[in-house]
Structure to design on (268 residues):
């Protein structure tokens, strides 16, 4: 943040090309490059929309510490500012998610899911406004931004899986998983009933389960599943999930599975 610029006695400070000057209550003069001022306004919009999606331009101007007139120099309409704010919010979300090492699959997924939930916990209203199709803020432009974020999350997931040319069924499985992550995040934000670490662990395991299911119908994915299982540490999230899942099978359930594998009819 630039230091306040003092006003010389007997006259106003000279405005420099490409520099915005603003007086905010109790803050004195500030001179900022136009691109920095624009970024400040967008950051103020994200912060404001994260609390109230009905926030007005006056509310955002107050958060940014500028006048509404100055805000109009950068954004002629509320729609323009909302669109810019959501585009910036999508970029920020991806910075949160991508800034994690490529560990073994379920560890890498848990790290990214943790950062995803870190983001939406702080920017809950903005996230819900972006991904909820009937949201008051969900214009066509914002829906396109949300879809772009989904595409980027899909690409990030393929990097975790070390896949460069996904088969159609694999892409379907990953996109379906991302839709599930989105829905689980909305449910968690709205209710808060489930413990966040359990939600993250469940979602990470769900992708492994989805790959195993997809490999059932697409033999080319069996190598990917084998690679996942070989690189997964025994004390990792997916190993824990498999052990816990095995423990849920009662004798009755095991007998029912054995019957299905043997193609036996249902008992009368």
């Amino acid at each position: 943040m630039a230091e306040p610029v003092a006003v010389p006695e007997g006259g106003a400070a000279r405005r420099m090309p490409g520099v915005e000057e603003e007086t905010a209550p109790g803050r004195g003069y500030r001179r900022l490059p136009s691109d920095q001022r624009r970024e400040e306004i967008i950051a103020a919009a994200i912060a404001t929309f994260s609390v109230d999606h009905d926030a007005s331009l006056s509310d955002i101007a107050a958060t940014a510490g500028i006048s509404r007139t100055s805000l109009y120099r950068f954004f002629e309409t509320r729609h323009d500012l909302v669109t810019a704010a959501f585009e910036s919010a999508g970029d920020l979300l991806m910075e949160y998610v991508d800034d994690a090492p490529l560990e073994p699959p379920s560890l890498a997924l848990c790290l990214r899911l943790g950062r995803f939930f870190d983001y939406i916990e702080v920017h809950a209203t903005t996230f819900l406004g972006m991904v909820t199709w009937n949201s008051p803020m969900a214009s066509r432009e914002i829906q396109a931004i949300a879809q772009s974020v989904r595409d980027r999350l899909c690409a990030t997931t393929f990097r975790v899986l070390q896949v460069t040319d996904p088969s159609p069924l694999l892409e379907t499985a990953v996109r379906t998983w991302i839709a599930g992550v989105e829905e689980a995040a909305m449910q968690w934000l709205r209710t808060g009933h489930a413990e966040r670490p359990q939600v993250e662990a469940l979602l990470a395991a769900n992708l492994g389960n989805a790959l195993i299911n997809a490999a059932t119908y697409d033999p080319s994915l069996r190598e990917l599943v084998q690679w996942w299982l070989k690189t997964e540490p025994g004390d990792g999230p997916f190993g824990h999930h498999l052990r816990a899942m095995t423990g849920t099978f009662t004798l009755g359930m095991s007998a029912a599975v054995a019957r299905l594998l043997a193609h036996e009819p249902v008992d009368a």
Q: What stands out?
A: Strands lie at 19-24, 28-33. The chain has twelve helices and two strands. Residues 38 and 74 are 7 Å apart (CA to CA).
